[in-house]
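Lesson 9: reading folded outputs for more than one chain in a single document. The general rule is that every protein is listed as its sequence immediately followed by its structure tokens, and records are never interleaved. Here is the first one.
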Amino acid sequence: AVQLVESGGGLVQPGGSLRLSCAASGFVFKDYYMSWVRQAPGKEIEWVCAIRSGGMQEWYAEFVNKRFRISRDDAKNMVYLQLNNLQPYDTAVYYCAKGATTDTMTDRGQGTQVTVSS
């Protein structure tokens, strides 16, 4: 069965950074696009970014504004999300997902909480 396990969330002050990790198993990781999505309290799931299989192309939501960076390590079946210059509006549960978009993702993990507050 597909398993996606996120880690690395926490409480950070505005302007701070976090690095999220996602350990994947149960499928041929290198063959799939992977993405990160997030869900703030009371809001719908929001797509954040994606990386293609092979890692040669990345896509980001407009609100990212060059603050985040997705990466992957196919040898370790890991996908990462570097979050820089975090702002209170980035507060959400962040999930990694198998698939490129919210329409095409087939699985996601249990999520990791990111809270940005002074």
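And here is the second record, again sequence then tokens.
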Amino acid sequence: DVQLVESGGGSVQAGGTLRLSCVVSNYRISSSCMGWFRQAPGKEREGVAATTRQGSTGYADSVKGRFTISTDNAKKTLYLQMNSLKPEDTAIYYCAAGAWTYELTVSAYPYWGQGTQVTVSS
């Protein structure tokens, strides 16, 4: 079975940084688009960043210029570098795999991790 395991979440103050990691098993991360999503309490899950098979990246407007998505194919790991964090970034962050085109929509991804909590205090 395909497994995605996130780590790196935590509690930081506004302006701080975190780097999330997502280790992928039984799946070649270069074979499809990969993405990061987040879900805040009482809100729907939303796309944050995605990367294509060719290495192109895209971001939600709310994180553009602050977050960076990247992959390490040798380590089978997807990363999300988060800088200049804001309280509104507080959410559970999920990595996802398997979209065939660049997408920031939940329904495009068949494989999901269990999530990691990010809390940003003001």
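What the second record shows: The two ends are 40 Å apart (CA to CA).
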